[in-house]
Design a protein that fits this description.
about 160 residues, 7-stranded mixed sheet, Immunoglobulin-like, mainly beta, 1 helix, 12 strands
């Protein structure tokens, strides 16, 4: 997987399928770059842009209802160490406003793990979402572009 990062060292995990990313010594946040295209985050799906061309949220609900589970089963979780991160999210080519939502994977853990979210990602716009991640299992998605819930594991 080729996750885009800024100011970090990426090392191949023992399985050779996921990257472990760590913040630098000055405790500057690690930047994780994510690109949204129609109904997906490209990096989260092994850097494959599926070429979906939605014109509204309902299109993605249909597309991901048909293929989202299979695509998630082929995707490797993003694995990070606890620390400060900036998720830099770009709406590459979706003709309506998008957002980003990172939260605990389990509703039971939701009150205890940090989360971040926001909207305003019009076509061609990039926005940063800062968070200090603690150990646990998270998911991230776009509720406005209706992407699958991609897995993020902090260990």
């Amino acid at each position: 997987m080729n996750w885009k990062t800024t100011g970090v060292t990426a090392c191949l995990a023992s399985a050779g399928l996921a990257f472990g990313l760590t913040a630098n010594a000055a405790e500057q946040p690690t930047v994780i770059e994510l690109t949204q295209t129609g109904c997906q985050f490209v990096e989260s799906e092994n850097n494959i842009d599926r070429g979906f061309m939605p014109t509204e949220k309902a299109d993605c609900e249909t597309i991901n209802g048909e293929s989202g589970e299979q695509r998630l089963s082929e995707a490797e979780p993003l694995r990070l160490s606890p620390g400060k991160y900036v998720f830099r999210v770009t709406n590459e080519d979706v003709p309506y406003m998008l957002g980003f939502y990172l939260r605990a994977e389990s509703a039971i853990e939701r009150p205890f793990l940090p989360s971040t979210s926001g909207g305003g990602l019009h076509e061609g716009v990039t926005q940063d979402y800062e968070i200090e991640l603690e150990e646990g299992e998270y998911v991230y998605s776009c509720p406005l572009n209706t992407t699958p819930d991609y897995v993020l594991i902090v260990e």
